[in-house]
Amino acid sequence: MSITGNYDHYHRSGSTGSGGPDRPERCACCVRTMKWFPVLFIVSVIGWSYYAFVVQLSFFTVTSVVQRILFLLFYHLILIMFLWSYYQTVFTDIGRVPSRFRVPRSELDRLLRATSEEEQKQILEAFAKELPIVTRTLNASVRFCEKCRLIKPDRAHHCSVCGVCVLKLDHHCPWVNNCINFTNYKYFILFLGYALLYCLYIAFTTVMYMELIWSGKVDGRFHILFLFFVSLMFAISLVSLFGYHCYLVLLNRTTLESFRTPIFRYGGPDKNGFSLGKLNNFQEVFGDDRKLWFVPVYTSVGDGVSYPVRCFDEDAESLLSGEMASGHHLHHPSRQHRNGHRVGGRHNDYDGEVHHHQYRNGSAVHSSKRDPLVHRVSDNDEDDDEDEESVFETTVFSHSANLLH
């Protein structure tokens, strides 16, 4: 798709996000307020469950003092971790793309004055040659966001709700009113895990009193009975969601990448292109310090901009060079492994890039060096944003529906 129009109009349309410059401020304020309703709903449910468990169950129903103390002790430990994780997920700032990825005005003017799409593609490729990016669009184009006027880093996508490009975007979650991305993905996983543990703990501790509640021997049976069924309902919904994201963590894959395979400049589409082995994948999100794995503090590895990738075997270079000389691509390169995990190798020279990987305390470190070659590029990544809309609808809101039903 070609980039048309004048710079001033392009600048105004890009800086206002999806709202547009003529949207009334009052309307925008109402929209921002309404986005907090799901969060307020979750907080209200937690507040009511606290009253039902602590007051109605622990003080009015449980007769044993020792049992009451144990109930309240474990309940508050789980509740603290649950609320801590939820707070971190909601209020952690999204990972924004660094300024060096933004196309400057001079280059943008050149794009607008370009007479053909091919010329625009070459301008973007030349600008991106010093940036640490290895992924491309379906047509081998540099991933460019017209709305934000920047080159997208690997795994970054434009969020239509937030109106900006976000680092390692997984999805936009209405239940936290925030993007699940590089900066809060660990918190989100812990939030799901502690929420599931919270619901299961309540369900198992209340089920033993169901006979007394049904027989009417205790007061406040409505709260306890309703608490059991609500906790059980949320637990069933959270099992699938938590399990799915644990699966994604072990594969080093985001929700968007599970729906749309990332395309690599040197190897084409590869769903496992960022996978470094289950342990290293886990440590990329949760860090190297095992004592902090399940504590909602920031320990993720990396900067959210560049990521280690699986690389070609040294022995495949000669074969790959022969394949490229004959005009064919090698889609399934062999890998090197050490203790079950891929170790660093060197890419062949055909893609103009050399990647080195080292593991430090079990974590992968990535660096890249590009040559000054200008490669063929294609359409920008506008279609990528449209596909993200469908992913939001099919994943996030389907999970939301599960929680409500």
Automatic annotation (TrEMBL):
Biased composition (Basic residues): 328-345
Region (Disordered): 1-23, 325-393
Pfam families: DHHC
Lipid bilayer topology: Multi-pass membrane protein
Entry's localization field: Membrane
Coiled coil: none
Domain Palmitoyltransferase DHHC: 143-259
Family: Belongs to the DHHC palmitoyltransferase family.
Name of the protein: Palmitoyltransferase
